[in-house]
Specification:
Mean pLDDT: 90
Radius of gyration: 16 Å
Strand order of the largest sheet: 3-2-1-4-5-6
Order of helices and strands: EHHHEHEHEHEEH
CATH superfamily: HAD superfamily/HAD-like
Oligomer: single chain
Structural class: alpha/beta
Number of helices: 7
Shape: globular
């Protein structure tokens, strides 16, 4: 039995599209996004803070996001529950509401009884849950996961989902994949 940690926004859910819909009449999706992670190089701080207030006050905003992978991919993730522990880690604001909304969103994608943790400390989370595998789209999270788990009994095999925003040099131990299915191939094969 393995423990697999999935990031949600930028890996499974299109946060960028949903958030930029609050900021502009011409939103852009994750795969097209070339702005900074915090949007401050593209939008005003006032507009960003206003959008965050909408998100934080909403009882269902996180449930409205588009998925970035197919339902077939979500079915593969759901099947992992038969033999492994699957955890969805996210740094969504508005917890505990964000946690419940994430749970609802994952169920709508076909994930039965999803384990959701809301934290910005992905490295610490991977260490605590003793993750064997982890996938994220943010280089800093991947580095933290690798760094926090390198000295553990079972270091986490860390993957970064490739996008225009994360093309930085990373240690060779962090594997870059083009799709979540490529990550799942490695998990299923035990690589």
């Amino acid at each position: 039995m393995k423990t697999i940690l999935f990031d949600v926004d930028g890996v499974l859910a299109d946060f960028v599209l949903g958030f930029t819909k609050l900021l502009t009449p011409n939103p852009f999706g994750t795969r097209e996004n070339t702005c900074a992670w915090n949007f401050k190089d593209t939008f005003s701080i006032i507009d960003i803070e206003s959008a965050w207030r909408i998100v934080e006050k909403s009882i269902d905003w996180w449930t409205t996001l588009n998925r970035l992978t197919s339902l077939d991919t979500f079915e593969r993730i759901n099947r992992l529950h038969d033999y492994h522990t699957v955890v969805f880690g996210t740094h969504r604001k508005g917890t505990p509401s964000a946690q419940g909304q994430t749970h609802v969103w994952l169920q709508a994608q076909g994930i039965e009884n999803p384990n959701v943790i809301c934290t910005k400390y992905k490295g610490e989370a991977a260490k605590v849950i003793q993750a064997h595998y982890a996938i994220d789209d943010k280089p800093e999270n991947c580095m933290a996961i690798k760094w926090m788990t390198d000295d553990t009994k079972v270091p986490t095999k860390t993957y970064i989902l490739d996008s225009l925003t994360n093309r930085v040099t990373l240690p060779k131990a962090i594997r870059r994949v083009q799709t979540v299915d490529e990550f799942l191939d490695d998990v299923e094969a035990g690589r």
